[in-house]
Write the structure tokens for this entry.
Amino acid sequence: MALAFVRVSAISPFPWRVRRLDRGWSALIDSDGHEARVRNIGADIAVGDYVTIDTGEERIESVAPRASALVRRASFEGARAVPHVVAANIDVVFLLQAAPSGVNPRRLERELVLAFDSGARPVVLLTKSDAVTAEQIAHETAVVHGVAPDLAVHAVSARDTATLADLGPYLAGTIALLGASGVGKSTLVNALVGSDVQRTGEVREGDQRGRHTTVAAELVALPSGGWLIDTPGLRAVTLWTSGHGIERAFADIFALSENCRFRDCKHEEEPSCAVRAAIEAGTLSVARLVAMERLVAEEAAVEEEQRERERTEDRRGFRKRTRGTDQN
């Protein structure tokens, strides 16, 4: 698949790019490497956004429409039905799974939904490949392809730079790194950049997992001219409302369901259910079907929360308008 990269020229109407966010402030960088720090209060921005600034008031003035965005449901208390943009204007999402720990199919499915919905291309990296055998790499690759047969998979190790050569075609654009805490995101960033730009933690002997060290998403320049966005390890991969992410992450089940007798088949006790037939034949696992059903239900719950939030805001707005009218 050819890669189409998101770029900004020196004459772009949005010359600055958000490099990092820190409590109401944005660290910015332009195409020449100049940096600025301005306020972002009142601006809906994320790392990777292209912006203009009001130099007089030292604040974000406007934000360019996003070509792509990695969005999940905000996880902090009180943020029901609120999206959290992890990274904006990305070309590729590296989904990191630590080879020594083994691929987690259920987490990978969730990450794939986010990646497909972002508009970027997902690629799986099996990290810490130096700590396992070639047979183990082949097994974990098969696990990935059991979830997504057409997904590109690369076994990499920050200790063996030769394993990073296959990543070259991706490094001209903007790449977001997504994975659980300790899978080696920051170590990989340092290896690709060629210097220790990100702090890393020690690795446990038992499972070769590192400690979580990245506390905020950050845009990091690559020698190739591209960019990496290292993101904090996500303990919970919470979904936002999906476009076609679930359909693409579970393309095998959706393809099977086209052959079910009933268009609204629930894949339970209905006759001539192609999905149940595949489970009985051993070509589809029950766990995968259950995982898809959970994600569909989770998405529906988020959509309902959004509708409830909108209804609440409408009622509050109506009361405010009513009070304002009464006073006139």
In short: Confidence is low (pLDDT under 50) at residues 6-10, 200-214. DSSP finds seven helices and 13 strands in the chain.
